[in-house]
Specification:
33% helix, six-stranded mixed beta sheet, seven-stranded mixed beta sheet, Rossmann fold, 413 residues
């Protein structure tokens, strides 16, 4: 029996370069409600390979996006203070840099709960959100009065928005480019909705950071692709867009913010874009050997964390975790960690509390539970905001509690 080889989402070449195989896993953000605790879960392959032609890293199995981003989607951006500060800083920068005013239109794709667009609205700039998850979009409409279209974004939706709202001066897509199974259809929507002299900014976790810092837990079914300048170059060219600037930012453990425009627009490539592109080439992101062998690093993290946690439990230490994040689901499921090692997880978002993590079935509680049970160790699952979490939970030091940060590199604080 012959198995069909997975093909690249962009150039249709066979995926031939192995990168990261995390076995099978449930959908990371499908938290388990109490009434379904005894129901079964479906597990899907979680395997990333790299295209030998365009070097886009991508999942070999694509789960239907409309079953992931549903009306029960649990992630609301406004519950992270550091992320809100990042959004405010970005808005102030881009308004000044590109002279946005009351006559401008700013469109954000995957606008979530209005966390970003509210900063433009306060400056009387016209805004429009596009968000596929109705429960999150309703929050943006109700709490921030952000006009929001509940839909996935593609060429057809872009046509309709253009007719109704006109073309955009600025389009924003933060941490969404990796979330789309049809990258070309998604990017071509920007081509249709963007003004001839308009710009687009994208933010996404940088594949180079994933490799260097071993951030394999950012791999889950929502992330269809793992992005670099090298890996997205072909998709942008096929969509008649050009990337003219890029900068490194600290979010999500190391991300890129890229600036794009129409292919024939007046913007020219910046030196910092060229510098980052050359850094990727120098590191080897166009060489198969860079990806082959990464699996051994993943296994190393798994074994080190398991040995550490098991040793603590054998010493009768009480261990809990903070943050019911998707990356946490990946880490727990890949490492085989359940309530035998982690008694419970706390999360500041009420949308996640009183549910259970997928796969591991570890209960999710209010952060106040830490003050009641006084654990010896708190494992921080969303390590990218570990400083924020530690600052909010310094009270654990009163009874000698410590924090465990699993990545990059296991450390105890």
């Amino acid at each position: 029996m012959k198995f069909k080889k997975p093909q690249c989402k962009v150039c249709k070449a066979n995926l031939i370069i192995p990168f990261a195989d995390l076995g099978i896993a449930p959908i990371a953000n499908e938290l388990i409600v109490p009434e379904k605790f005894n129901d079964g879960e479906t597990y899907y392959p979680l395997n990333v390979m790299v295209c030998g032609e365009c070097f886009l890293a991508q999942l070999t199995y694509s789960h239907p996006s409309d079953s992931i981003f549903t009306n029960l989607y649990p992630y609301f951006s406004s519950y992270s203070q550091s992320w809100l500060a990042h959004a405010k800083e970005y808005a102030e920068m881009v308004i000044e840099k590109y002279g946005l005013d009351e006559g401008s239109l700013v469109v954000e794709i995957a606008s979530n709960d209005g966390y970003l667009l509210k900063n433009f609205k306060k400056k009387n700039i016209n805004v429009l959100g596009v968000e596929p998850c109705k429960n999150v979009a309703d929050n943006a409409i109700k709490n921030h009065k952000i006009p929001t279209v509940v839909s996935f974004f593609n060429e057809n939706i872009a046509d309709g928005l253009t007719k109704k709202y006109g073309k955009a001066n600025l389009m924003i897509a933060n941490n969404v480019l990796a979330h789309v199974p049809d990258m070309l259809g998604f990017l071509k929507g920007f081509t249709k909705l963007l003004k001839s002299d308009g710009i687009i900014t994208f933010e996404f976790p940088h594949l180079l950071s994933l490799i260097k810092k071993n951030q394999f837990d950012t791999i889950y079914h929502e992330h269809y692709s793992y992005l670099s300048l090298v890996g997205i170059e072909t998709a942008f060219k096929k969509s008649n867009l050009k990337i003219f600037d890029a900068q490194k930012i600290l979010t999500h453990g190391g991300s890129l913010r890229i600036y794009a425009c129409h292919r024939n627009s007046r913007f020219f490539k910046t030196n910092r874009l060229v510098k980052i592109f050359q850094e990727e080439i120098s590191y080897g992101l166009k060489e198969a050997d860079t990806y082959i062998g990464y699996q051994n690093k993943i296994i190393g993290v798994k074994l080190k964390l398991l040995i550490f946690l098991i040793d603590l439990k054998l010493k009768k230490k009480k261990i809990v975790a903070y943050g019911a994040a998707a990356k946490g689901a990946t880490l727990l499921n890949y490492c085989g960690i359940d309530s035998d090692l982690i008694e419970y997880i706390v999360d500041i978002s009420p949308h996640k509390q009183n549910k259970y993590m997928p796969g591991s079935r570890i209960p999710i509680k209010d952060p106040k539970e830490i003050l009641i049970t006084k654990p010896d160790y708190v494992l921080i699952l969303p390590w990218n905001i570990s400083e924020e979490i530690i600052a909010q939970n310094l009270a654990i030091r009163k009874w000698g509690g410590k924090f465990i940060v699993p990545n990059p590199g296991l450390k105890v604080i």
